[in-house]
Every structure is written in C-alpha cells, then in structure tokens.
Amino acid sequence: MPKLPLPPGSTLGILGGGQLGRMLALAAARLGFDVAVLERDADSPAGRVAAHTIVGAYDDPAALEQLAALAQVVTFEFENVPAASVAKLEALGIEVAPGPEALAVAQDRIAEKQFLNASGAPTVAFSSADSAEEAVAAATEMGCPVLMKTRREGYDGKGQRWVEHAPDAAAAFKALGGAPVILEAPADFVRELSIIAARGRDGATAIYPLAENHHEGGILRRSLAPAQVGEDLAFQAEKIAARVLKGLNYVGVVGIELFELKDGTLLVNEIAPRVHNTGHWTMDGCEVDQFEQHIRAVAGWPLGPTAPHHRVEMLNLLGDEAEAWAKLAHEPETRIHLYGKRDPKPGRKMGHVNKLKAL
Amino acid sequence: MPKLPLPPGSTLGILGGGQLGRMLALAAARLGFDVAVLERDADSPAGRVAAHTIVGAYDDPAALEQLAALAQVVTFEFENVPAASVAKLEALGIEVAPGPEALAVAQDRIAEKQFLNASGAPTVAFSSADSAEEAVAAATEMGCPVLMKTRREGYDGKGQRWVEHAPDAAAAFKALGGAPVILEAPADFVRELSIIAARGRDGATAIYPLAENHHEGGILRRSLAPAQVGEDLAFQAEKIAARVLKGLNYVGVVGIELFELKDGTLLVNEIAPRVHNTGHWTMDGCEVDQFEQHIRAVAGWPLGPTAPHHRVEMLNLLGDEAEAWAKLAHEPETRIHLYGKRDPKPGRKMGHVNKLKAL
C-alpha cells in the first residue's frame, strides 16, 4: 500500500475522463500531483489536462494494471465503477477512495435507502420489485402515484418513470427494461437542496454550506449557495452528512441530494459518492473547493476550510448554451468554466458559470 | 490570422514548460482551451497538464512549425524568447502576444530604461558600456557605487554586480562575461513594490492592487498584497502601468517592479512582459487571477475584474522548503501551489503558498 499522506510528485489515478475528472485533475495539479486518467476515449476532457491517459474500459484488466503501475491512489468521477475493478486495483496494492462500501450503496437504490434509514437519515417510503407482478403488487400496496426507477444505473432523470395507477406498473417495469426496480413514494417537497461534505482518512469531516437546486427535465440547471436556510435546517443537513460519511467509513467528497418538506424536515433523495454538480459553486465561492477537498481526502492530506467568501449562482451550460461564452465573458460577476467537450449535444453539460454576489 | 476572440476548444500555444507555463495552462483549461507547450524537456511542469508537448528549443524551426500547426495563438512564460522565433510564428499566421515590441524592450535593459523614461515612467540614472574602458569611464562619470548588469539575459539576481570604485568597473565588466552592460545608480528605496496589469486586444486595461515585495539574494521570498499604500502612490503606480501598456501597444499581463523612494515617488526597476511571481497572490486573492487574465487578453477575450476578496501573504517555496507541504496543508489559512518540479535544487522555485487574511 502507498505511504500516506501521498507526497506531491506522486501520480493520482482517476477513472473517467469527463468534466468531473477534468476538474479533479486540475485541482490535483495545483497540489503538485501528476494525474493518470483511465478512459475509453483517447481524447477526453480530463485526459487533455492529465500527464497520462490510459485508453480502456473501466473493467479492462490490462488497463487497470497499467493504471496501477503509474498511480498510488485511485479515485473516480462516477459511481458506476465496477466492484471487480476496485477489487482488482486493491489487490494490486492501490488505495481506492471512496471505497467499495460507498460504491455498493450508491450503485443500488434499495441498498442506498436501506443504509440511509438504518443510519437515521430519513428517505421517502419505498419498495423493491424484481418482476412486473411484484411491481403491480408494490404499487397497489404503496398507493399511486409512485416513481419507478431502475435499481441500478440511470442519472439525470434517465431510467425512471411515474406510475399513476397501480396496474400501469407492469408496463412501466417492462419499459424500464425488465430489470429490478425501486418504487418510491412522491416527496411533497418545497425545495431541493444538497449538501457537499468530505471525510478525510483520519475521520475528520468538512461540510460546505447547503445549496438550493433547480432541475429541469431531470437535469440540474441552477444552484444557489449558500442557500437561505434557518439554523435548524442547516443542523439537520449537517447531521445527515455526518451520519452518511461515518456510516460508509467514507473517504473523499460526497454529494447528498435533499428534499425540504413543508414541515421543515429533510429527506435524502440520493447520495453520489463523488464530487457533485451542485458543488461547482465552491470553485469560486469557497477557499478550498470540492475538487481540491476530494484530492486532499483521497491523498490522505488534512481537509481544508469550507468557508464561503461569495454567494454564488451556478448555472449549467447545456448543449449549445456554451456558445454564449463571448457574451458571458463580458459579465464582470461571471466566472466561466468550460469542459473542452467537442460535441455540444442537446442537454449535454458543456460547462458552467458561477455568478458571484456579495455574501 | 486566427479569428478573435479565440473560441473555447481552440489550442493555445505556450513557449516554456516551467511553473508560469503550468499555471497559464491550468487557467487556459478552465476556459475550455487546449494547450500546446513548446519546451526542451519532454517531462515539464507545464507539459504534464497540457494536451500537447512539442519537444524542442525555442528557436528550432521544425518545433515552431509543429506549434503553428496546432495553435492559433501563442504566448510565452519568459521574456527571452528569440525575436526570430516570434517572426517565424507570425509568418506562419499565428498571433503572438505580448508582441515583438514588448519583447525587444524587455530583452535589453538599455532599451527598457530608454522606453520607460520616454514614456514618462521614471527610472534610476543609467549608462551603457560595451567595453571595460567604457565601463570605467561611465562609473567615473556617474560616481560610485553603481550596479553593473548585463544588458541582456540574467534574472533572480544573476548577471549583475556592484562596483564600489570606478577602476573596479573593468574587472566587473570582464567578470560579467565581457558583453555589453548597463550601469545603474543605486535606488535609495524604502520599499520594493510591484504592479500587475493587463491590456486586452481592444486596448482596455485592468490593473491589480500593488504588492509589497521582499527579496533575499536577488530572489523573491515574499509578497504582501494589496500593499498598504496611500492613494497617491497607487495613483502613480497605475499611471506608470497605463503608460507602459499603451507605450508597448501591449497585449497580455505585465509585471512592473517599482522602487518606492523616501519622498514617496516611484521609480520603475524593471518590466517583465509576462505573468509575474509577485502576482501569484491573485490566485487566491482576486476574482480573476493574473493567469486567467493573461489568457483572456492574448485570446482576445474581454478582461476580467481585478478586485481583491482577500489580503494575501505569498511565500515562495524554494528548494527543500517545499518538503514542508504536509505541515502547510494543516494550516487552514494557507493555499498551496506546487509546480511538479522533480529536482529541488537550492533556491529553485518549487511552489508557493498564499496565506489568506481578511481584507
């Protein structure tokens, strides 16, 4: 196993070459690390700012061996890292963070909700179903409407649909591919919030102020942070974050999506074991942003401060919205972050801007 | 010639693979540019965070052609770029910024002082000498002590020596290699200050607050910014910066080193046509730092704001001082920047820290 804290000049591995990998790589470089990216695409947003790109699938044993030969610590930009890949890297003497426990929970919506409830982090009511018949039975028992999601995979609103009448659950189950699903009771929320938090290898935690988030068609459009919340709500959210981090023996940054209910209680929607789109505001709003924080944590460094110095409105630039860069560059309050993606498909996250306001 | 403003996704070329090139490359990546570094060393601090490294000397025609095939706009991290290289790139249709005028002035200490005085930016008295005899005559006429420097090259206190008695000027001339020299009257300064400023392709300027600088053995140890100065001094410095930028028809960031005299007037010590060590504080102290500002300027983007949000004490980490990274990482007010240099030679700039204080 590598000696930790990992000294500058060491190589840090990242699974995934997208924008999160890119912003992690830039943060790692600031701290003096070299970065090796494992990614299917030889020309990726992260690979273009990394010292090494290893071209391969995330479960390609030869690619994982190449990564292990370069890097001492490996992290990832997405939660669907195959468990076998993590096991293989660990067998090769590599520290992988966040660890297999966090991945197992984040990859299965049933395991995730069971873990959360067991940890004292409340969620909506839910059931699982492995067949169309079970889905109809579960929808009948829960009462409709219910939100059906595949247990695994799916992001940005993909792999889910609403069931308005219990008998329709059979068709929904088939439409989602016939794989095991979760059925979730609707959350009668007044606001979507999120909390970004980190835990170091020493068990210390660092928690950022809450963000208020606005989605459209399942895709994040806009975050406002620090969110305007009372002390009570902030305290609830921090308690949830602390329980999640401790319960998963977590190392790194986690993003926790929350529903604020009318009565002022919080439910956890989902947890992402990685840096998170709703934490991009920290790049221009906080002393140490979520990307450096994650690198610090996985490298075994002490965590940094999370104090904000600006209020931020973060706007995602989707598809051809990034073509407004010249106009955005004229706005003095707007900090621009572009990901170097070649192909501006509709809905694709091409960049984001942080609009700064006084705290 | 490339269409400006240069769109994200374009490739920006940087001559030089050191720490300034690295920090420029990281800033360019944030704005969505790819970077191509031209550098003698295949494994350089900047190359490791760039999409492309072209290995070659700065005057290697084949290397310059490779760079021109990739990049639409080229900048540099050091002032001693051969004029012929700039001419070659321009002949190949590349925009080079800052331009040949700025380089010519910055590469010759006599031309620099003549330009400054002609622009209404005062300097110490000086003479030139092309032989040992001329050196003795000049020292005699000026009166000793005088500071003898080679007209070209030299940085961080290299290529200069004090002459205490006029006859010693002959030996000093030979010790400096027998090349043309400048003799400078001593500046009876109370403080060393610097001002970092930028000019866009549209002629707009952006000026950062002054920094107060402390050198040891000719090497910058420490900058404090914004410096504690009265309105008068700030006004003088801004006027100097504006004259330098306009006089050189400048595009990019310039660093201007200043002497503050007892009577409250400012003299220009030297100008560096590039991002500058005394501007590293802007990385954690300002909304848009000097590196992004430089990229914006050379890419033909509008300049960004220079307002500070923290007071900063910047400390260079020289040689083995960077080995204190683990201790520094524990300090909540300290932001760490390490350059990925492999070999911590004494006096070598391995990184810097910005210690944040309230404004």
Architecture overview:
Two copies of one chain form a homodimer. Chain A is α+β, with helices and mostly antiparallel strands. Chain A folds into three domains: 11-96, Rossmann fold (3-Layer(aba) Sandwich), CATH 3.40.50.20; 125-184, 2-Layer Sandwich (Dna Ligase, domain 1), CATH 3.30.1490.20; 189-357, D-amino Acid Aminotransferase, Chain A, domain 1. Helices cover 28% and strands 29% of the residues of chain A. Chain A is built from eleven helices and 18 strands. The first copy, chain A, has helices spanning 19-30, 61-70, 83-91, 100-107, 109-118, 132-142, 169-175, 231-247, 282-285, 290-298, 325-329; strands spanning 11-15, 34-39, 52-55, 73-76, 95-96, 126-129, 146-150, 160-163, 181-184, 189-199, 205-207, 211-216, 219-225, 252-261, 266-272, 311-318, 334-338, 349-357. In chain A, strands 10, 11, 12, 13, 14, 15, 16, 17 and 18 form a nine-stranded antiparallel β-sheet that branches. Chain A has a five-stranded parallel β-sheet with strand order 3-2-1-4-5, with helices on both faces. In chain A, helix 1 (19-30) packs across helix 10 and helix 4 (100-107) crosses helix 5 (109-118). The longest helix of chain A has 17 residues, at 231-247. Chain A is globular and about 60 Å long. Chain A starts with 10 loop residues before the first strand and ends with a strand. The mean pLDDT of chain A is 96.
